[in-house]
Write a structure and sequence with these properties.
By secondary structure, this protein is α/β, with parallel strands linked by helices. It has 9 helices and 10 strands. It has one domain: P-loop containing nucleotide triphosphate hydrolases (Rossmann fold), CATH 3.40.50.300. The strands form 2 sheets. The protein has a 6-stranded mixed beta sheet, with helices on both faces. Strands 2-1-4-5 form a 4-stranded antiparallel beta sheet, with helices on one face. The longest helix has 16 residues. It is globular, with a radius of gyration of 18 Å. The mean pLDDT is about 95. Bound molecules: adenosine-5'-diphosphate and magnesium ion. Magnesium ion binds next to helix 1. Adenosine-5'-diphosphate (ADP) binds next to strand 2 and helix 1.
């Protein structure tokens, strides 16, 4: 369970201030895939980084399985797996080395790591390259290795920023199947995407984020009923027009 309450974040650089998030609230529940849908620059990555303790909010509160990201960040990190499609593993170490390295950091016993690594490698079809140095892997292989590394502590909550970005069609299918599998196992899954079809196919509940504000948030099927449609594109453009964000696009 993840609850985000009234989270705001402003980035200040020498030149200007960017209000990346303004009073953002949402909840993601176990056994559900929750999606943050919005165009580039809407604030999705910022929101997910705050949920994962990588960034602190200016205001508001985030709780992950009851733990506060500000007061109990260590507990939150044990509970969460944060993945992004532009994770770039590099260097001479192999996926296996990296998996054991990160599992040790999370104090996962070695025999448990071994067992989980086998499950992940079977599931993600990684057995052929588990011991090859990550520098020599293809993009898709690197992505799979990064997923295995991020999930070796068997988190209850999976946060995946733009899950299928830049992936070939087969790896992309593996990743979406994988996320559905997590849902079946009662885990809480949060994704962000700017691709309507990804949100449509994968999510039980979708929040639309525009210019740092959540402007719609509902179960997909209830959203379709309210907008008398059968697709997210209609919902998105109706909302975007109402919010007046299409003119400056
Ligand atoms: N570290 C940062 N420093 C300054 N501005 C940032 C930083 N990270 C994000 N931003 C700005 O915040 C806004 C939201 O960015 P982001 O959360 O990455 O959006 P999204 O993931 O939806 O594309 C953008 O205007 C972006 O330029
Ligand atoms: Mg982003």
């Amino acid at each position: 369970m993840v609850s985000v309450r009234d989270v705001s974040k402003t980035f200040t650089s020498r030149k200007k201030k960017v209000k990346a998030l303004e009073k953002v609230s949402f909840e993601a529940k176990p056994g559900e895939i929750f999606g943050l849908l919005g165009p580039n620059g809407a604030g999705k990555t910022t929101a997910l980084r705050i949920v994962s303790t990588l960034l602190k909010p200016d205001e508001g509160e985030v709780k992950v399985n009851g733990f506060s990201t500000l007061k109990q960040p260590q507990e939150v990190r044990k509970t969460i797996g944060f993945l992004t499609s532009d994770m770039r593993l590099s260097g001479n170490l192999s996926a296996k080395d990296l998996i054991f390295f990160f599992a040790d950091l999370s104090r996962v016993p070695r025999d448990v790591t071994q067992k989980r690594m086998k499950e992940l490698a079977d599931y993600l079809d990684m057995n052929d390259f588990l011991e090859r140095s990550v520098d020599k892997l293809s993009t898709g292989m690197k992505q799979k290795a990064a997923i295995a590394v991020s999930l070796i502590h068997d988190p209850d909550v999976i946060v995946f920023d733009e899950p299928t970005n830049g992936l070939d069609i087969i790896t992309s299918k593996t990743v979406t199947d994988f996320l559905r599998d997590f849902r079946e196992r009662g885990k809480t899954v949060i994704i962000s995407t700017h691709v309507m079809s990804v949100a449509e196919k994968l999510c039980d509940r979708v929040a639309i984020i525009l210019e740092g504000r959540i402007v719609e948030n509902d179960k997909l099927k209830d959203m379709y009923a309210r907008y008398s449609t059968d697709n997210l594109e209609d919902v998105f453009f109706t909302v975007a027009e109402k919010e007046g964000v299409l003119e400056d696009a």
